[in-house]
């Protein structure tokens, strides 16, 4: 765990958190939480820190942060969102007995005033499998997002190089079911073949994302672009932020980010002349200044 007190100029390592994978930090009622899985394809787990990340609870059982009895759970650093008194987070399960990785999408939620370390505080939707004939590829690393109509949706990456599409799944108002229609809910999404994070900005009244755009020009993960949408269905490339001509050993990927006033601050799993684009050799921090107004040449 790293912490900065000067807006990202310098960083201090403050904690090691073993047994915590693919996780997201979020704040609720003054406490800091970390939610993800216990290991690669482990159980869903959550931890709490009451001292700004220096010390963390340990998830040992259903009373202390172990939220699923089943293993095979998967996710990525994607948003935790609050809506109508509940918080939501997207996950996937690798279906038992499936050939290769066959992810089933689902969303968990809990009341904001509940004890979030109790498994009994959380409920989950059904686990929805995909058909490759419908999606074009595996779906994974979903984003829980509040849609313009006031519903919660789960927008997932479709893992197909160059496809640039995403799947938009609908969560019922009671948080118990999730569904999608291939004809209606496959959306054109720049960078949809690689992990992304979507967040809503109340100032611009638009959804924003940082993505690995893979077409026009052809790329893998060596281009990082800023995109936005007013409705989650139609996306616009606002700017190319970082680009390297070599796609084999350079990548700005698995970016997670938040708004910081007029800026976006982000962290990237960065490969810079590493052994491959996938196996990153850096963890980098970036600031995109005045992202709403077009003054993005100051991205650092």
Beta-strand residue fraction: 35-45%
Give the low-pLDDT segments.
none
Shape: globular
Distance between the termini: 22 Å
Give the CATH topology of the largest domain: Neuraminidase
Number of helices: 2
The computed structural class is mainly beta
Q: Can you put this structure into words, describing what you see?
A:
- By secondary structure, this protein is an all-beta fold.
- It has two domains: 1-188, Neuraminidase, CATH 2.120.10.10; 202-300, no CATH class.
- It has two helices and 22 strands.
- The strands form six sheets. Strands 6, 7, 8, 9 and 10 form a five-stranded antiparallel sheet that branches. Strands 11, 12, 13, 14 and 15 form a five-stranded antiparallel sheet that branches. A four-stranded antiparallel sheet has the order 16-17-18-19, with no helix packed on it.
- A hairpin with a 2-residue loop joins strand 3 and strand 4 (31-37).
- It starts with a strand and ends in a 12-residue tail after the last strand.
Main features:
mainly beta, 2 domains, five-stranded antiparallel β-sheet, 22 strands, 3% helix
Short recap of the structure:
The chain has two helices and 22 strands. The chain has 300 residues and is mostly beta strands. Strand 12 and strand 13 form a beta hairpin.
Chain-wise SSE layout:
Blueprint: E1 2-3, E2 12-13, E3 21-28, E4 31-37, E5 44-49, E6 73-74, E7 80-83, E8 86-94, E9 103-111, E10 123-124, H1 132-135, E11 138-146, E12 152-159, E13 165-171, E14 178-179, H2 182-185, E15 186-188, E16 197-201, E17 206-211, E18 223-229, E19 236-243, E20 250-260, E21 263-272, E22 282-288
Antiparallel strand pairs: 1-2, 3-4, 4-5, 6-8, 7-8, 8-9, 9-10, 11-12, 12-13, 13-14, 13-15, 16-17, 17-18, 18-19, 20-21, 21-22
């Amino acid at each position: 765990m790293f912490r900065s007190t000067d807006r990202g100029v310098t960083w201090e390592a403050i904690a090691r958190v073993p047994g915590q994978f693919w996780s997201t930090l979020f704040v609720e009622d003054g406490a800091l939480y970390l939610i993800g899985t216990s290991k690669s394809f482990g159980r869903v787990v959550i931890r709490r820190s009451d001292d700004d990340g220096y010390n963390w609870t340990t998830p040992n059982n259903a009373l202390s942060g172990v939220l699923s009895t089943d293993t095979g759970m998967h996710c990525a650093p994607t948003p935790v969102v609050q809506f109508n008194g509940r918080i939501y987070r997207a996950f996937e399960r690798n279906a038992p007995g499936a050939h290769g990785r066959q992810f089933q999408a689902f969303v968990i939620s809990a009341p904001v005033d509940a004890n979030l370390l109790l498994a009994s505080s959380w409920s989950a939707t059904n686990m929805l499998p995909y058909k490759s004939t419908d999606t074009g590829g595996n779906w994974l690393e979903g984003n829980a997002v509040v849609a313009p109509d006031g519903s919660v949706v789960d927008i997932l990456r479709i893992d197909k190089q160059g496809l640039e599409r995403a799947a938009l799944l609908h969560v019922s108002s009671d948080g118990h079911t999730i569904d999608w229609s291939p004809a209606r809910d496959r959306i054109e999404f720049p960078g949809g073949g690689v992990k992304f994070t979507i967040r809503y900005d109340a100032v611009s009244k638009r959804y924003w994302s940082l993505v690995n755009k893979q077409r026009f020009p052809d790329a893998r993960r060596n281009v990082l672009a800023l995109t936005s949408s007013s409705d989650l269905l139609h996306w616009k490339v606002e700017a190319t932020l970082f680009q390297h001509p070599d796609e084999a050993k350079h990548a700005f990927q698995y970016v997670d980010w938040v708004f910081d006033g007029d800026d976006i601050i982000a962290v990237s799993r960065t490969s810079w002349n590493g052994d491959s684009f996938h196996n990153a050799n850096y963890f980098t921090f970036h600031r995109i200044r005045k992202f709403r107004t077009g003054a993005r040449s100051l991205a650092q």
